[in-house]
Amino acid sequence: xxxxxxQAVLRLNFAFDDAEGNLEKECIYLKELLHGxxxxxxxxxxxWCIEFxxxxxxxxxxxxxxxxxxxxxxxxxxxxxxxxxxxxxxxxDLETLVIDWWYNxxxxxxLSRYTNEDEQRRFETRNFNCLFPHLKTIEIINFHGxxxxxxxxxxxxxxxxKHPTVLxxxxxxxxxYFEMAQELLSFPRSSPHASVxxxxx
Length: 201
Fold this sequence. Notes:
CATH topology: Leucine-rich repeat, LRR (right-handed beta-alpha superhelix)
Number of helices: 6
Strand content: 15-25%
Radius of gyration: 17 Å
Number of strands: 7
Distance between the termini: 41 Å
Largest sheet: 7 strands, parallel
CATH class: Alpha Beta
Helix content: 25-40%
Order of helices and strands: EHEHEHEHEHEHE
CATH architecture: Alpha-Beta Horseshoe
Structural class: alpha/beta
Strand order of the largest sheet: 1-2-3-4-5-6-7
């Protein structure tokens, strides 16, 4: 374990001739990486990490408990929901979560065998057994398009407004916020101090 590392950026990708045959190798690499960076404070994950977190979660593996206080994730697809279900319970020290929607076109080839509808339903009904006791800030950056038509982001927004009990700020960086403002502000939230902020350009 890298005890003195304060920040880790994992934007990785592997290219094997036999992708399916090397699935286990890639899973092992990610397990070792997550064990090694469990004590860093700031973590940034790329699409490959989220995809293989989903693969590992579907195989029954859970990441080790972590000390991450700030995490940045790529834009999540419905097929990534198992990875998110795996990531959140081990991140109880999380204070700030950033989701960068710039990566929303990344493919999830290994997860394409699972239907979007099944994984979205699994995410929405999943009991994470945690209330995010320290999560105060959530930022979604580089988002474009109306919220009501985005089947990927809508369940995330509902979930993160409903569950974190000390949430103070939910920031969505959008080009045009008027179409989503009324709908978003109507969602229930657990924290009485949570404010929803639209950052627009």
